[in-house]
Amino acid sequence: MRKPIMAANWKMNKTLPEAAAFAQGMADVRSLSDKVETVVCPPFTCLAAVADALTAKGIAVGAQNLYPADKGAFTGEVSPEMIRSIGCVYVILGHSERRHILGESNGFINEKIKKALEHGLIPILCVGETLEERQSGKTKEVCETQLEGSLKEIPKEAAARTVVAYEPVWAIGTGVNASVQDAQETILTVRNWFVQTYGQETAAQVRIQYGGSVKPENAAEYMSQPDIDGALVGGASLEPDSFLSIVKGAL
Ligand code: PEP
């Protein structure tokens, strides 16, 4: 059985005091942890403080990026070991904002995934099509190309541990969420890619989230689908009550 995973992506939001206020206001979810895994991914500036405060409440913490090297002359970058050393478990990689605004390629994302796994971090790999790609019927092809490039040479056991977030680009931060049926259909396509690439057993283990304008009002409906194992949530994860009610959508 796959345990649902509900993850908050704060993006470039919250100062240190604001992050501390969230952590203080967020409920202790240890009583839910048999049924759902809760993850918060803050910016680097408050990662250590949020990790300290939220881990005690049964919430795992993740980074939003890493640089694929162990150490050295990479001004402004953060290594997987640095992230791991402050108690992070997850790292979001391949988010569409990094693909489209910062020009990250599947090859670069693949390097990051390898380094994350090497250091014991679990990648949350984001894939998804733009509106133009969707309208020209390329959703399946785009997701498969992103999976192939990003997971190149990743062995079965590591692939099974990786979380995939299907995030249609047109649904991110727009308030226009994908229909539950469309999300289930594309996520099934993603799972079938795992069947073809890694076999049935790995495909049955890998957790696949939906992301794109998930809110307290629609989270449970996504979670009722057979192949949707969680949500990656941006805007609606910034307030403790809103995020908690999304987490409860998985129960
Ligand atoms: C995201 O940034 O991963 C995301 C899904 O954002 P939002 O929930 O705001 O659409």
Strands of the widest sheet, in order across it, are: 1-2-3-4-5-6-7-8
Which strand-content bin applies to the residues? 5-15%
The CATH H-level homologous superfamily = Aldolase class I
Overall spatial form = globular
CATH class: Alpha Beta
Residue-averaged pLDDT, rounded? 98
Query: How many structural domains in the coordinates?
Result: 1
Biggest sheet character: 8 strands, parallel, barrel
For this structure, the quaternary state is single chain
Q: Could you describe the 3D structure shown?
A:
This protein has 251 residues and is an alpha/beta fold. The chain is 42% helix and 15% strand. It has one domain (5-248): Aldolase class I (TIM Barrel, Alpha-Beta Barrel). The protein has helices spanning 16-25, 47-55, 80-85, 96-100, 106-118, 131-135, 139-150, 156-161, 180-198, 200-205, 219-223, 240-248, and strands at residues 5-9, 37-41, 60-63, 90-93, 122-127, 163-166, 207-211, 230-233. It has an 8-stranded parallel beta barrel, surrounded by 5 helices. It is globular and about 45 Å long. The two termini are 14 Å apart. 43% of the residues are buried. The model has no long low-confidence stretch (mean pLDDT 98). The protein binds phosphoenolpyruvate (PEP). Residues 9, 11, 167, 172-173, 211-214, 232-236 line the site of phosphoenolpyruvate.
